[in-house]
Design brief:
The strands form two sheets. This protein has a two-stranded antiparallel ribbon. A two-stranded antiparallel ribbon has the order 3-4. It is mainly alpha-helical. The structure holds zinc ion (ZN).
Length: about 240
């Protein structure tokens, strides 16, 4: 999970939200008709805006939601308990089905909304594993509730993705060591393009909108500092 900048919801949703809140104020026993809303074009527009905000990745597990699997609108504060917030854009996120099901209608104050708090202050990735920083309760609750370390498909995807980067990094380090041991600094010019390429790739894949970008960032951003130092030394 990582922090996102919230965009503006569709105008028609904002109107729907206002209309609903006015009715709810008059009669707090009313129930929001989400099913009916789901059939409207406004829902489609809302998903599109959320997709843009999250650049197609799930707000929680950071998997790219493929065009074959239908993305879901996640109510951070569940619509069953917080009826008033059912159509409030600030309460809506873009999520994969698995995360949406895992979170269900659970909510407490310690939970992390990616558009309000910075999840990286609470959760870090060591390898493919999501870890709560200093065992803080906000991170722990999100990791446990969303089953971030328990879903075998997600775990496999992460390992596969991470291992490509790890393999390339190890090869680079071996090549650098070999060059340095040969004490022939001209050899570094052969390795240099690979170092630059690796650095650029890590920077690119750590960006918002890339699958598992936080995992890549936490595992490799410090490593590219080492590679930058190597480049500076040989220049
Ligand atoms: Zn997800």
């Amino acid at each position: 999970m990582h922090k996102v900048q919230r965009n503006k919801g569709p105008l028609k949703l904002l109107e729907k939200d206002k209309e609903w809140k006015d009715s709810f104020k008059l009669n707090p026993n009313l129930k929001p008709n989400w099913e009916e809303f789901s059939k409207t074009v406004v829902k489609r527009e809302t998903i599109d805006m959320l997709e843009q905000m999250y650049k197609g990745c799930c707000c929680y597990c950071e998997s790219k939601i493929k065009s074959t699997s239908y993305p879901e609108i996640e109510h951070f504060k569940p619509k069953s308990k917080y009826k008033k917030l059912c159509f409030e854009y600030n309460n809506l996120h873009y999520s994969c089905k698995r995360c949406n099901i895992s979170k269900g209608s659970y909510y407490n104050e310690d939970m992390i909304s990616p558009s309000d708090k910075n999840p990286e202050d609470y959760i870090k990735y060591i390898g493919e594993v999501a870890v709560s920083r200093e065992n803080n309760k906000c991170g722990t609750i999100m990791i446990d509730l969303l089953k971030l370390n328990e879903r075998s498909d997600l775990k496999e995807e992460r390992i596969k993705y991470l291992s490509e980067f790890s393999k390339n990094y190890e090869l680079l380090i071996s090549a650098i060591e070999m060059v340095l041991n040969n004490k022939d600094s001209s050899d570094i010019n052969i390795v240099k393009p690979f170092i630059i390429n690796f650095i650029e790739n890590v920077k690119l894949k750590s960006k918002h909108g890339e699958s598992y970008c936080t995992m890549i960032k936490h595992n490799f951003l410090d490593k590219i500092d080492i590679l930058m130092e190597v480049l500076e030394e040989v220049e």
